[in-house]
Amino acid sequence: MALEWQDPHNFAKHLKKASTPAGYLLWQLLRNRQRCGAKFRREYVKEPYILDFYCPEAKLCIECDGLPHFTPEGIAKDLARTEWLNAQGIEVIRFTSREIESESERVLKEIDIALKRLLDPNPAPHPPAPSPRSTEEKGR
User: Shortest CA distance to 66 belongs to which of 127, 119, 121, 15?
Assistant: First the structure.
């Protein structure tokens, strides 16, 4: 029986209570600012969607994909969802439930890399090009 949810916030509460083992594990690894000091929210409502995990300061969404995501319909929905989120300036990283459960260290490394890139207010500048004058002086 399909559940009809008029209010996405109520549905998000339901999803928190009905978390999958992989979703629960990932939440234990993300919560309380464990990743680069970034705060994640679980089952975050960004209408029309509910994001599995979301870090507002980095604008990073992490999705935990189970079997329904691998059907042709699921793949199409995920693509549309990712495109919409990207258009809102939100980066999306997807992991399968199996990856989260069996390769959690690799998953966390990927999350940390994305967080560092997105949260770094001063990305490393390119080294300045040498001026023509300084190269002429070296040749003397």
Answer: 15
Q: Which residues contact 116 (CB under 8 A, 6 or more apart)?
A: 36
Q: What are the beta bridge partners of residue 118?
A: none
| CA dist., res. 32 & res. 41, Å (int) | 10
Q: State pLDDT tens for residues 23-46.
A: 899 999 999 898 889 999 998 988
Q: Which residues lie across from 69 on neighbouring strands?
A: none
What is the DSSP secondary-structure string of 34-71? TBTTB--EEEEEETTEEEEEEETTTTEEEEEE-GGGGS
pLDDT 10s digits, 38-73: 999 998 988 888 899 999 999 999 999 876 666 888
Domains of the chain in start order, with CATH, are: 21-117 (3.40.960.10)
